[in-house]
Fold:
Amino acid sequence: MFSTVTWVHVAWLAAAIGFELAAQVLIKLSDGFRRRAVGVGGLLLIAAAFACLGRATTAIPLTVAYAIWGGTGLAIAVLAGRVLFGQRLPASAWAGLVLVAVGITLFRFV
Structure:
């Protein structure tokens, strides 16, 4: 069903995560798409992220790849929001991130 996972597939998944993070930052910087060029750049990066995710899923099962992509992207976005925009999360949101990490671990290893 799936071929053997190699470093190339993991690299495609990492690229998908990177493009998704860059897209999120650009969309934030677009100021609700008032800065259209920046917003369109974000949308193009989202398309690139999905293209990379598609390449990764030629060997990584979709459920695993999507869980890693979504969860890792979420965690990195939280850090980027803090560093780039000074956004802070309440304790309940941090608890939610821990639950996401546990869920990804269970998805992959159980």
Q: What stands out?
A: Residues 30 and 38 are 5 Å apart (CA to CA). The first helix runs from residue 7 to 29.
